[in-house]
Amino acid sequence: MTAPLRLGLMGCADVATRRVLPAVAATEGIELTAVASRDPARALRVVEAFGGTVAEDYAALLERPDVDAVYLPLPSGLHAPWVRRALDAGKHVLAEKPLTTDLAETVDLVDRATRAGLVLRENFMFVHHAQHRRVLELLADGAIGRLRSFSSTFAIPPRPPGDIRYQPALGGGALFDVAAYPLRAAQMVLGPGLDVVGATLRHDHALGVDVGGGVLVRDADDVIGHLAFGLEHRYTSRYELLGSTGRLTLDHAFTPPSTHRPVLRLDRQDHVEEFALPADDQCANAVAAFARAVREGPVADPTTVLQARLVDSSRRAAGHVPNQQPDGTPHG
């Protein structure tokens, strides 16, 4: 029997304790062995709930021989220095999106992982949900004719004061956070040959970050993608494919709970059909996919650099000045 992948947690963020660690506990072939946090009491609570032992700090966790890979849910602005240190320590890395807040940093880290023979994954869990496979199957089967446009929105209500999304030095802002979902969905549906042809961001000067916006993308066949996102909206998580003869619509596209049964709507002239799809656990699927990638051997994921290029192009198209890069001080 193959030994399980031994995972270290760097930072006890809510997404880790609420979604990823329960998936790790339920997935064969991977186990939590160490937890590091700037708050030792918080790390101890995580260990008591999910197993493993407490590491003194992030650096000590990376030195441990019983850690093969790390999961890194730190604030976005702190990803680059700690991903780099993890790779240099010979650890595989699963990092929350965005991998970094700088295109050159992302390219460097992907190259570094490839040279070292290590798996580096940006944790877009939604792409591992079976509902999207069904969408792409219907598209390929000609259910809506020829695809003409794609539209997607991911938006959430305002967060409490002090939330990391409102902190420029930690990679805050809507573009680096919620915009990632429709941009990644556009890659999934339209393919890798995307260009950003326009973008706008609404900047909140009191907070110092962008809180909403939109991006217009175009693929090689001139199919247009209309992408919207924000941090001050009614919760919305959806996308729509408009074709020459029909339309496919999917709600709860990005963050459905594991018990959610998706409903995919197909509209054609004088005909509406709804597909009730089975529930699926995208978080468990993402964890299993990471463990499988480590077992089967590292293959660079081209979507990571493409995603960073789309974000960078969107920022430039909107005339947005990048957030200040932090010095890598531990946070989490």
Set out the fold topology.
Elements: E1 5-10, H1 14-26, E2 30-36, H2 40-50, E3 53-54, H3 58-63, E4 69-72, H4 79-88, E5 92-95, H5 103-116, E6 120-122, H6 130-140, E7 147-155, H7 180-190, E8 195-204, E9 209-218, E10 224-230, E11 236-243, E12 246-251, E13 263-268, E14 271-276, H8 282-296, H9 302-317
Parallel strand pairs: 1-2, 1-4, 2-3, 4-5, 5-6, 7-10
Antiparallel strand pairs: 7-11, 8-9, 9-10, 11-12, 12-13, 13-14
Biased composition (Polar residues): 322-332
Family: Belongs to the Gfo/Idh/MocA family.
Protein name: Putative dehydrogenase
3D architecture notes:
With 332 residues, this protein is of the alpha/beta class. It folds into two domains: 5-125 and 284-300, Rossmann fold, CATH 3.40.50.720; 130-279, Dihydrodipicolinate Reductase, domain 2, CATH 3.30.360. It has nine helices and 14 strands. It has helices at residues 14-26, 40-50, 58-63, 79-88, 103-116, 130-140, 180-190, 282-296, 302-317, and strands spanning 5-10, 30-36, 53-54, 69-72, 92-95, 120-122, 147-155, 195-204, 209-218, 224-230, 236-243, 246-251, 263-268, 271-276. The strands form two sheets. An eight-stranded mixed sheet has the order 8-9-10-7-11-12-13-14. A six-stranded parallel sheet has the order 3-2-1-4-5-6, with helices on both faces. The two termini are 35 Å apart. Residues 323-332 have low confidence and may be disordered.
